[in-house]
């Protein structure tokens, strides 16, 4: 019995100890608080307070400290001298909303006043350490490590200001790099000083796109020794600055950014924004000389076409009359020494094909009088005087897509500088291009050039190389095709029926040029651009048209010379007349039989 009682007691004790419950003191347990971090400003920030913008905001922010159960923390900003300790702070300020928000917002004046209250003098830079402390009453945690900030108290200041122009754009601004009479105008909002006696002065700064304005490519002081909020800079000055900054290839666009820095006393501030500016220095080139249609009159110098495939290279299709003193190149329609700061190039003495800008000779040793393609590579100081021609190539032509078969059967005739015309039989449903040599264009300066339609345009624009084929607009037969580079920036072509009609009140059909009107019998083509018709005419007027139903291509003129869209031609008395038209030599005649 005694053993049974002992065993029962031991079992009870074992159960009692095995099921013992831990008791917690809910009153004295405390409240946990999680760690948190600063989000702004970053470590080692330098802040210069601006007396001209006292209401501007300075914001400190941090992530929220997570409470343990229910007690939300409050926050305060603490700062001390860099040589001091955050345990004895210089500044101790609750966060926004009486310490409840995880932000602290100052105006610049409030922050300046707080430092002033600690006997920090105006305009003095103070190096501080700072942190944010959070507490829920039971626990206090702090951001770590302490961060550095340098704050300069208000002294001089500059108000915010905006850039007006040139407006920010990535579309190139085309300038003449030699022009001293053309200007790029920079304007910006006027800024005001924090200290009235220290006037604001301005400096325009330029960097390569994405560059650092602390190390600009070049700068300008604004008008009125820096006091004006505007500056006009000549194209030549800008170009010279770009060249000095290493952008020596004038044919390549330069992507820049610009801003304005305002200074009042010791305070500096840039405009609120930065503007993009892309500059293309359009190097113009002209042909002049006794052998050219311009003779030696610089003002009449012939504009050359920029070579799409070779920046800095130019070409022109022109008739040269050898033996009249040769030719030279000009970058302005003015001889050197004038207001346009022009330069001229000729042959490097003793080395034909090499160009020189100083002590040069006229270019004369190219051959007999005739039509030439003259090219000038200004970058590499080379020139080329080659046969000048233009023709049609493609499966619409008898040459097929084989350039060596183009000339002379599919060739055109130069009727004026940079303009060819010709009559070519084209087959319906097929396509063609222009070409000026016996091979496809290889992109070189001296190589052949081929031209097709600009892919994004439907207005007859053509371009070198990568371009669409032209198509035959109607039935198989003769067509008048024109290559027109008289607008050197917009090469064009046209294709019209290979016919000519008379239309006007002197003719039986009158001014009705509709497709259904018989008009007169078509003029007869005899080759080489020559047309003839003999017919009865009334007293009145008439013109030549190429296609019934269209005025797009018509000739008028006076004194035996035709012109595109020229004046009506006059028949003084009724009778039988023989009318002749020469499209290549641009002449006409009217003979009464």
From TrEMBL:
One GO term in the molecular function aspect is: starch binding
| An example Gene Ontology CC term for this record | outer membrane
Q: Residue ranges of the SusE outer membrane protein domain?
A: 31-132, 168-260
The family database entries (PROSITE patterns) matched by this protein are listed as:
PROKAR_LIPOPROTEIN
> What InterPro entries has UniProt attached to this entry?
SusE
**Membrane-traversing stretches:** none
Q: What's the superkingdom here?
A: Bacteria
Query: Entry's Pfam families?
Result: SusE
Question: What is this protein called in UniProt?
Answer: SusF/SusE family outer membrane protein
Q: Which organism is it from?
A: Pedobacter planticolens
């Amino acid at each position: 019995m005694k053993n049974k009682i002992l065993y029962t007691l031991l079992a009870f004790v074992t159960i009692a100890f095995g099921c013992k419950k831990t008791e917690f003191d809910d009153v004295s347990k405390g409240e946990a608080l999680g760690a948190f971090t600063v989000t702004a400003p970053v470590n080692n920030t330098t802040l210069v307070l601006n007396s001209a913008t006292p209401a501007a905001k300075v914001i400190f922010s941090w992530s929220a400290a997570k409470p343990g159960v229910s007690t939300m923390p409050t926050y305060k900003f603490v700062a001390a001298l860099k040589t001091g300790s955050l345990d004895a702070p210089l500044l101790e300020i609750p966060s926004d909303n009486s310490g409840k928000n995880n932000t602290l917002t100052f105006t610049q004046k409030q922050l300046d006043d707080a430092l002033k209250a600690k006997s920090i003098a105006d305009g003095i830079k103070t190096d501080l350490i700072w942190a944010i402390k959070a507490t829920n009453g039971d626990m206090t945690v702090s951001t770590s490590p302490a961060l550095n900030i340098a704050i300069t108290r208000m002294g001089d200041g500059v108000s915010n200001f905006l850039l007006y122009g040139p407006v920010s754009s990535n579309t190139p601004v085309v300038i003449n790099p030699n022009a001293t009479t053309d200007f790029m105008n920079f304007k910006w909002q006027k800024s005001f000083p924090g200290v009235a006696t220290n006037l604001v002065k301005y400096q325009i700064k330029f960097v390569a796109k994405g560059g650092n304005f602390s190390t600009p490519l070049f700068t300008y002081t604004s008008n009125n020794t820096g006091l004006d909020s505007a500056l006009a800079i000549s194209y030549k000055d800008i170009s010279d600055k770009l060249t000095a900054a290493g952008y020596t290839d004038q044919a390549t666009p330069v992507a820049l950014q610009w801003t304005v820095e305002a200074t009042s006393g010791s305070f500096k501030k840039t405009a609120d924004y930065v503007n993009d500016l892309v500059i293309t220095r359009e190097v113009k080139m002209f042909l002049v000389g006794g052998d050219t249609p311009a003779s030696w009159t610089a003002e009449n110098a012939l504009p050359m076409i920029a070579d799409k495939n070779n920046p800095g290279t130019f070409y022109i299709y022109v008739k040269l009359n050898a033996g009249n003193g040769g030719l030279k190149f000009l970058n302005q329609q003015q001889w050197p020494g004038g207001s346009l700061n022009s330069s001229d190039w000729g042959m490097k003495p003793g080395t034909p094909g090499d160009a020189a800008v100083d002590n040069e000779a006229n270019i004369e040793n190219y051959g007999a009088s005739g039509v030439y393609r003259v090219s000038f590579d200004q970058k590499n100081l080379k020139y080329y005087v080659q046969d000048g021609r233009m023709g049609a190539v493609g499966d619409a032509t008898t040459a097929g897509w084989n350039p060596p078969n183009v000339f002379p059967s599919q060739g055109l005739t130069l009727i004026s500088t940079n303009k060819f015309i010709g009559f070519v039989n084209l087959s319906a449903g097929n396509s063609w291009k222009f070409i000026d040599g016996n091979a496809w264009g290889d992109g070189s300066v001296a190589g052949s050039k081929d031209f097709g339609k600009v892919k994004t345009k439907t207005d007859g624009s053509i371009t070198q190389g990568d371009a669409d084929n032209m198509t035959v607009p109607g039935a198989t037969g003769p067509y008048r095709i024109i290559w027109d580079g008289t607008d050197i920036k917009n090469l064009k072509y046209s294709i019209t029926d290979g016919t000519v009609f008379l239309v006007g009140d002197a003719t039986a059909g009158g001014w009705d040029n509709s497709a259904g009107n018989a008009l007169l019998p078509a003029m007869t083509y005899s080759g080489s651009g020559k047309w003839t018709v003999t017919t009865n005419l009334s007293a009145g007027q008439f013109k030549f048209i190429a296609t019934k139903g269209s005025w797009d291509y018509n000739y008028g003129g006076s004194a035996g010379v035709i012109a595109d869209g020229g004046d009506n031609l006059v028949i003084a008395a009724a009778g039988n007349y023989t009318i002749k038209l020469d499209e290549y030599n641009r002449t006409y005649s009217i003979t009464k039989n």
